[in-house]
Amino acid sequence: MIKLKNIEIGKNEIAVIAGPCAIESEEQMEKVGVKLKKLGIKIMRGGAYKPRTCPHSFQGLGKKGLKILKETADRHDLSTVTEVMGIRDADLVAEHADILQVGARNMQNFELLKELGKLKKPVLLKRGSNATIEELLFAAEHILIHGNTRIILCERGIRTFEKETRNTLTLATIPLVKELSSLPIIVDPSHGTGKKSLIEPMTKAAIAAGADGFMIEVHPSPENALSDSQQQLNLKELETLMRNIKPIVKAMNKSI
Ligand code: PEP
Ligand code: MN
């Protein structure tokens, strides 16, 4: 169980993490923050340092983005998660965010894992797109043995021969990780599918499979997003999703 100021992750409450792929401006984050607060969502996401496949794509606002994330979250009493891409940024990100995200591309960056073990802030560890479940659990252990037990695992899909979806979202990971480990696990259906229309069914399935929460990308105007515009819900769609998952949450004897 991981305790934040406003939620305990890994108990009976489904942890919802929502926010844009990348932090783009104060206005964008404020619109999202207002909506999260209204919907009772407690954790805001947003990337300040973005791992982009193409070097010419938007790379994130860096330190300025971290500041916007923190200020927005403070105004609305939200917890935050954002990615730390390298050791160099770790202290700065830790000063600005409540949970430090290790992205899929960095799951086996052992030096970074060691550093996050020493920092002792909650870590959201995403599965590498070609990593086995055993490798994911070993990566978590790298953080654990350096003194940090506050780790949340995240299934975000793996790379397969399938081309219709961005990744193949393997939901069997959830009950399996529950058998093998006591760490909480959440699901990221946004990167897991890359498709807006698949987010609601996959979120419902993840909750039904026993996930401790989910992380989704939302943007006030997805069509104008600087990254991942195909997979971000708008604020109205977020509201609909939150309403439609309620019966599944209840059926699992959990709250949201
Ligand atoms: C993200 O969550 O911002 C992200 C880049 O995801 P992943 O590392 O899973 O690709
Ligand atoms: Mn993204």
What does this structure look like?
The protein is an alpha/beta fold and 256 residues long. The chain is built from ten helices and ten strands. Strands 3-4-5-6-7-8-9-10 form an eight-stranded parallel beta barrel, surrounded by six helices. Helix 1 runs parallel beside helix 2 (63-76) and helix 4 packs across helix 5. The radius of gyration is 16 Å and the shape is globular. The two termini are 16 Å apart. The mean pLDDT is 98. Bound molecules: phosphoenolpyruvate and manganese (II) ion. Phosphoenolpyruvate (PEP) binds at residues 21, 47, 51, 83, 103-105, 126, 156, 191.
List keywords for this structure.
10 helices; two-stranded antiparallel ribbon; 256 residues; eight-stranded parallel beta barrel; binds phosphoenolpyruvate; binds manganese (II) ion; TIM Barrel
CATH topology (fold) name: TIM Barrel
Bound molecules: phosphoenolpyruvate, manganese (II) ion
What CATH first level would be assigned? Alpha Beta
Question: Which value, in Å, is the CA radius of gyration?
Answer: 16 Å
State the end-to-end distance: 16 Å
Q: What is the CATH superfamily?
A: Aldolase class I
Architecture per CATH nomenclature, i.e. the level-2 architecture: Alpha-Beta Barrel
Number of domains: 1
Q: What's the helical proportion of residues? A: 25-40%
Low-confidence stretches: none
Task: Please summarize the sheet with the most strands.
Answer: 8 strands, parallel, barrel
From the helix content, strand content and strand pairing, which structural class follows?
alpha/beta
Q: Which strand order spans the largest sheet, edge to edge or round the barrel? A: 3-4-5-6-7-8-9-10
Strand-residue proportion: 5-15%
Q: Average pLDDT across residues?
A: 98
| Total beta strand runs | 10
H/E series, N to C?
Answer: EEEHEHEHEHEHEHEHHEHH
> Which term fits the overall shape?
globular
Number of helices: 10
